[in-house]
Amino acid sequence: MEDINSKVDEEVNVVTRTEMLRQLDSLQEWDVIVIGGGATGLGIAMDAASRRYRTLLVEQADFAKGTSSKATKLVHGGVRYMAQGDLGLVREACYERGLLLKNAPHITKNELFVIPNYTWLDHIKYTIGLKFYDFLAGRLSLGTSKYISKQETLEALPTIKSEGLKGGVTYHDGQFDDARLALNIAQTAIEHGACVLNYMKVTGFIKSNNQKVVGVEMKDVETNRIFRAMGKTIINATGVYVDSIIQMDRPEASNMIRPSKGVHITIDRSFLPGEHALMIPQTSDGRVLFAVPWHNKLIVGTTDTLYDKAELEPEAVEDDIAFILETAGAYLTRKPRRSDVEAVFAGLRPLAAPRGEGAKTKEISRSHKIMVAKSGLITITGGKWTTFRKMAQDTLQKAIEVGSIHSSKCITARLPIHGFQESVDRQNPLHFYGSDLEKLNQLIMANPEWAEPLVEGYPFNRAQVVWAVRFEYARKVEDVLARRFRLLLLNASAAIAVAPEIARIMAQELGRDSWWVQKELDDFRALAQAYRGNPILETA
Ligand SMILES: Cc1cc2nc3c(=O)[nH]c(=O)nc-3n(C[C@H](O)[C@H](O)[C@H](O)COP(=O)(O)OP(=O)(O)OC[C@H]3O[C@@H](n4cnc5c(N)ncnc54)[C@H](O)[C@@H]3O)c2cc1C
Questions:
Q1: How far apart (Å, rounded) are the C-alpha atoms in residues 177 and 110?
Q2: What residues are in contact with ligand 1 under a 6 Å CB criterion?
Q3: What is the distance in A from the centroid of ligand 1 to the CA of 151?
Q4: Distance (Å, whole) CA 316 – CA 68
Q5: pLDDT tens across 352-391, in order?
Q6: 374 Cβ partners below 8 Å, 6+ apart?
Q7: Which residue in 219, 381, 441, 502 has the most C-beta neighbors within 10 A?
Q8: Ligand 1 atom closest to Cα of 245?
């Protein structure tokens, strides 16, 4: 067994966190230092490393711990932004959508969305609107939109209300697993030579005599050890935290971000069986609402409300949950109730603060913005998960223009992302491992006792926990359950129930003691309670 185990380790050829800490100690100066390991920062690290810049990325928690694991899971042009007239953003996002589905087919898919129409006016409006959406996608279109009859709409979405239904429109967009894609982007960056560290928090800047930012000070959150790294270009890609980083450079700078919270709930697939997603184009607060099949559950959302502060785990309140249940319930024959909610998760959009009386967050452009401070610090904010690649390209282009790094060509438009596989067997519940699946299976063959499922009804086993620690940089129980397995977002109670076993396996792998196990369990339970949405269970 030992031999096959070490053979698997050799074949996977992972650069460990310890090895990357050594790199951090030994390299004198990096070309690019990225602060923030969400979609934006990781995209920049992948781009920079693949252009052969010496690249360091540091993330204060786990990769995608912030907004980047709480998305609606759409790789999309944004039908809503088209209605707002933001055609440049839609065209760009449709193009990026096409590239991402080609570069990461194991973790993305082409999804058919159905809009049910209950008035003839809507029927005409959405049929024409979506033709324009097809047109904007150009040659990277995922398929054309179609007008469908009432009968066809009910066949596509068997559980939606038929009363008053006139017909529907179908269109194509992409769908993905956000946190796992973030991990795969980190792995791609590492494979191109980047040093990418989770649990490393930037605490301050190092400045030259002429007040240029020339390095960062960081703290290893696990050991409290302080590190310093010098860099030619320093990029602030910290999402809703960009202001706190800007203020490390310029304490007097005013806040430019006003976070906006988006909440999702997870319910059973039986509320909307079948393969297609439901899109509700006009909620009572003027937004769109999606009900999307995901890992054999249905996720429904989202909301859009201003939030006071930057937080990694913003709180979903009962009003958010009630709004989603009510809106979805108005379209479904079986209304989901509060007790049907298996998980609740919330993320913050890093939006530019709305200006002017009565300005609403949903009206603020989602385009990204890049700013260069006098100190040379580059900040990128806004954008979408879907456009992370273009955001990275634009950020590095800006760094080249201001002369902080030499010119080099971007190659990410056709760069396969870790796990890439030409053909994907989507019937296999573990297909999202992509090309890693074969090696994961070898690990199971070497340790057949690890094959047994850990949670009834979900495809997770012990080998995957070991895999997450050895090859996917998981450091905490939460990393495995929230972002490697996604179970916390699928069913928070199931995640709480399996946490002790996950902690036990991780402690063995990481060489931790019983104190660590207890602390991990306390931390995880406190977090997971919030994902249950502090339920007030219905008795009816
Ligand atoms: C509810 C919701 C739904 C969405 N749905 C979609 C969707 O379906 N499709 C789509 O394309 N887009 C979607 N988006 C947008 C998309 O999720 C975001 O644009 C994207 O995830 C932002 O990524 P980011 O890297 O900029 O921010 P984040 O993911 O928040 O990453 C910033 C990181 O910086 C780290 N950090 C902060 N301070 C420090 C420090 N001092 N040192 C080190 N690290 C630090 C944080 O820990 C965090 O991990 C959605 C957004 C929301 C809120």
A1: 13
A2: 35-41, 58-61, 64-68, 70-74, 76, 201-202, 237-241, 262, 302, 312, 347-350, 383-386
A3: 40
A4: 17
A5: 765 554 555 555 566 889 999 999 999 999 999 999 999 9
A6: 211
A7: 502
A8: 41
Strand 257-268 relative to strand 277-280: parallel, antiparallel, unpaired? unpaired
Beta strands in 362-403 (DSSP E): 369-372, 378-381
* Helix or strand (DSSP H, E) at 122: helix 120-137
For residue 472, which of 421, 529, 434, 519 has the smallest C-alpha distance? 434
Show the CA angle centred on residue 213, arms to residues 211 and 219, nearest 5°: 130
Dihedral (Cα; 476, 477, 479, 484), 10-degree rounding = 140
Q: What is the pLDDT of residues 248-298, one digit of tens each?
A: 999 999 998 989 999 999 999 999 998 999 999 888 777 889 999 999 999
Whole-structure pTM value:
0.95
Whose alpha carbon is nearest atom 32 of ligand 1?
238
210 C-alpha to ligand 1 centroid (Å) = 33
- Partners of 439 in the β-ladder: none
Considering only the C-alpha atoms of the chain, give the largest distance between any 2 of them, rounded to a whole number of Å.
72
For every residue of 53-70, DSSP letters joined together read: --EEEE-SSSTT-SGGGS
Rounded Cα–Cα distance for residues 321 and 303 (Å): 9
* Phi, psi for residue 356 in degrees, rounded to 5: 95, 150
Counting Cα atoms < 13 Å in the Cβ hemisphere of 282 gives 10
